[in-house]
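Ligand: iron/sulfur cluster. Inputs:
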Amino acid sequence: MKKINLKDLSLAEMENLTKECGEKPFRACQVFEWIFQKDICNIHEMTNLPLKLRDSLNKIAFLSHLTIANKRISKDGTIKYLFELEDGKRIESVLIPGRKRLTLCISSQVGCKLNCSFCLTGKGGFVRNLKHSEIIDQILSVRREIKSSQQAHNSEAGDITNVVLMGMGEPLDNYENVIKSIKTMVSPYGLKIPARRITLSTSGLIPEITRLGDENLKIKLAVSLNASDNETRDKIMPVNRRYPLERLMKTLKDYPLPHGSRITIEYVMIKGINDTLEDASRLSIILRGLKCKINLIPFNNFEGSNLEAPLYNNVEEFQQLLISKHYTAIVRKSKGADICAACGQLRTGSRVK
Ligand code: SF4
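Predicted complex:
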C-alpha cells in the first residue's frame, strides 16, 4: 500500500485519519502543530501523541522533506532558492528582505500554461501542478534555512513575515491545492501566517477569481494587468482572449475585498508596447471605481526575449499621470536582478504574475 504524505492533508482530512486510527479529532490539531509549527522530520518525534497512534501513523504515512538544491544571494540581499522535487522537477522561491518585512515568493506549478510574453516561465510550457505539501514545504524549508543561518551567525534577522504566490505558475490554475495551502498557512494549528500578509497574484482567471472571493479567506489579491486595451493584452497575455478586459474589470469591481484592502494592479512596462501616456490615460479610465493601487514594474530582460525595458522618463511620466488622476502608483524596482531573481527573470519561474 502506498503511504500517505501527512503534509498533503488538510486539517479536516487529518481529523478523518486520526479517527480511522481510533483517536479523537483533537489529535489532528496536535499532528498539524508538530508538522507545520515544529517542523519535525519523523512521525515518532510527536511525543505528546500516544505511542499506539504514532505506530499506526508510521505504518500508513510519512513526512516529505523539500531540500534546497541551490541558493544564490543577490547584492541587494534577495535570495533565490532552487528546490528539486521528488520527481526531479525543479521550482524556485525568492526571499526578498524589506525594511520591516521578509517576503517569500513561492511557486504553485512547475511551468505555466498561460504563456505571457514577458515571462520566462511561460516560455517553458506547463509541466504539472504542485501538491499541497510542495507549496507548504517551500515555506518550511526556507524558514528552516533562515533559522540555521541565524544560529550559525548568532544573528536575529527574524522570520518570514509575508508570503506571495507570485512565483512559477498561475495559482488559480491549481485552485484546489493552492486554496488548501492557504488554509494551512493561516490555520492556528498550521503556519499561523495572518491572512492579510498573504498575497495571491493572478493573470485574471475570471471564474476562479469569483470562486476565490466566495472563499472569504481575507488574503490580498494582485492582478497582473499589463495593458489597458484588449488588442495589446491579447498580444502579451493570451489569457485575455478568453477573459477580456471589460469582463475582468467587472469581476474585480464585484470582488468582495476585506475591509480596508485594495487590489494590487501589477503593470509590467515594456518599451513600445504599453508604456506611453495614452496607455497610462486609458489605464486610469478602466480602473475607475476599483479600489486599487498600481505597481509599475519596468520589464526585466531575459535571454531570448525580444522585448525591451522602458525608458526611465517614460516610467516616470506614466507614474505621474496616474498620480495626477489620484491613483497610488508605485514604481517597483525589481530586486535580485544580478542573480536572475527579479520579476520575470526566474529561470524556472516568474515573479511577475
Ligand atoms: S506571468 Fe504568470 S501566468 Fe503569465 S506565463 Fe508567467 S507564470 Fe504564467
